[in-house]
Amino acid sequence: MFKGLSLFLYLLLGITLIIAVLFYFGGEIDPSTERPEPVYTDMLLYWIYTILWLCVISTVVFAIRKFFIKLKSSPRKAAKLILVPLALIIVMTVAWSFGNGSPLQMLRYEGKENIYFWLKVTDMFLYTIYFLLGMGILSVLYYNIKKALQK
Fold it and tell me: What is the pTM of this model?
């Protein structure tokens, strides 16, 4: 199983490297503009979306698998596994309430995403990232201080 997984990861890495080389060295659409756009920008963005969705789907599938394995052996531990996604949903709900849905004033913007819903979603994800980053830093500090005091 692990050998197949390693081959898959090397395949993903190879594709990523090829797309990165194409993006950086593949030329520009119109080099005479003030901010030239690389030819392979769309390809890079679609690859990033693909990798993101592969990560999200595999994380959810393995979390569900782990939940059912724990449910058979220890229902109490399985119930604890639900607490983390539940806490994340609570954090995201609070972050949504803090978000600002006021349309932004942007020069030469003709897109359709400058609306209440997408602005709130963007703020929700940003605030959630800030919260999780802060919690990560605090937990590293806590465990290092705790470890230092135990010596």
Answer: 0.63
